[in-house]
Amino acid sequence: MLEQKNGEIKHLSGEIRNLEKFKTTLNEEVNELQYRQEQLELLNSNLMRQVERLKEEKEEREKEAVSYCNALEKARVANQDLQVQLDQALQQALDPNSKGNSLFAEVEDRRAAMERQFISMKVKYQSLKKQNAFNREQMQRMKLQIATLLQMKGSQTESEQQERLFAMLEQKNGEIKHLSGEIRNLEKFKQRK
């Protein structure tokens, strides 16, 4: 009898252990399901916020599109007005009796005159530049001649020749200074042009 009771107790103890294991397993599964549910709720909340943000962005884009369409229409109207004004201006320019045409002709005449003056000054500048280079070359030759004469023992004739050469040198120096001044003036005029 006692052995039978002991057997039943062992059997019941085994079942209790099995039930406790099963209970632990169920608790773990419940916890896992709760965690998944929380994650899904968080994901759902994030998705809802994204949907709201996308709706707001869509509304803003629609407003921008309407604004762009209005601006485009205004630009088209303004372009038509400008085209009309341009056509009128062209007609006035082609009309010999138009005041605007005479003003345009006057401006064109002044431009052509300034262009002719510039070409003339440019030619003169090139000519003066060549003349200046030639004079510098002549001066260099004269300096060499004077240096040679100074090395020689001078007589009265050589002294007179030396003075004459110095006078010529001074004259050429004056010409070079004058030409250099004109060249600078022409270069300034050229830069302004």
TrEMBL record:
Domain of life, source organism: Eukaryota
Which residues does UniProt call coiled coil?
A: 2-92
Q: Which UniProt keywords are listed?
A: Coiled coil
Single biological process term from Gene Ontology: mitotic metaphase chromosome alignment
Which terms in the Gene Ontology molecular function aspect does this entry carry?
kinetochore binding
Q: What InterPro entries would the database entry show? A: Spindly/BICDR_Dynein_Adapter
Which named protein is this?
Protein Spindly
According to the UniProt record, one GO cellular component term is: outer kinetochore
Keyword Coiled coil: yes or no? Answer: yes
Q: Which PANTHER family match?
A: BICD FAMILY-LIKE CARGO ADAPTER (PTHR32123), PROTEIN SPINDLY (PTHR32123:SF9)
